[in-house]
Amino acid sequence: MSRSVLVTGGNRGIGLAIARAFADGGDNVAVTYRSGEPPEGVLGVKCDITDPEQVEQAYKEVEDKQGPVEVLVANAGITRDQLLLRMSEEDFTSVLDTNLTGTFRVVKRASRGMLRARRGRIVLISSVVGLMGQAGQANYAASKAGLVGFARSLSRELGSRSITCNVVAPGFVDTDMTRALSDEQREEIVKQVPLGRYAQAEEIASSVRFLASDEAAYITGAVIPVDGGLGMGH
Questions:
Q1: Could you tell me if 24 and 188 are in contact, meaning their C-beta atoms sit under 8 angstroms apart?
Q2: What is the dihedral of CA 232, 102, 7, 48, to 10 degrees?
């Protein structure tokens, strides 16, 4: 049976691959996006997750068109990389407000319908950087590490209502962002990965779909690394 799925930041990269994976599986999929055009084949909802009013309006639109959200994938995020001594307050707080507080906003709103239905799947997209750290990304790493504690707390709060909350932590993924790096930078990154290559966005999407499936009904509070071995031990 088709479910109502919402993917935040779903108009490109990992988010788009996740949205397409659910749509290909027969689900009704909506994606939020801040700029550009929404992808074809899914419901595009313009929304900046740092604005609570836009989040509420986005949910109302999704609920009107495909019913209460049964699967939420919180993927929207930004980076503002800078070494600590050069990092401004705004660099730090803007990343936290989007990546962590923005996730709080969309999860809180989705949980309302899930609690009523006594079922639901929540998947948060973190990063290997949140587990092992990265110079120049203290803001990003802090925001992505925060998702782990957030998810595990929600697992304890919502588990009695058959709502699972898990985290996927991707490593380096072949997206427009990483393709913009120089060949030398790309080669240096690959040297750190035991599998010796970048992930494809579809490989991240497969793990997300699994966590939202019936087969994963007894998995909650888990952190699933999809990083080619990069972060092992963290």
A1: no
A2: -140
Reply yes or no on domain 4-226 having CATH 3.30.420.40: no
pLDDT in tens, 82-99: 999 999 999 999 999 999
| CB contact at 8 A, 110 and 122 | yes
Residue with tokens 């990069």: 230
Per-residue pLDDT reduced to its tens digit, 27-70: 999 999 998 888 999 999 999 999 999 999 999 999 999 999 99
At a CB cut-off of 8 Å and minimum separation 6, what does 29 contact?
5, 6, 7, 10, 19, 22, 23, 41, 42, 43
Alpha carbon distance 93, 191 (integer Å):
32
Q: Is 234 helix (H, G, I), strand (E, B) or coil?
A: coil
pTM of the predicted model, to two decimals?
0.95
Q: Is position 141 annotated in a ligand binding site?
A: yes
Domain ranges of the chain: 4-226
Question: Comparing C-alpha atoms, which of 4, 15, 10 is closest to residue 202?
Answer: 15
Which of 66, 15, 63 minimizes the C-alpha distance to 38?
15
11 known ligand binder: yes
Q: How far apart are CA 127 and CA 223, in angstroms?
A: 10
Please identify every residue annotated as catalytic. Answer: 140
At 1, the pLDDT band (50, 70, 90 cuts) reads confident
- 231 is annotated as contributing to ligand binding: no
Q: Is 9 annotated as a binding residue?
A: yes
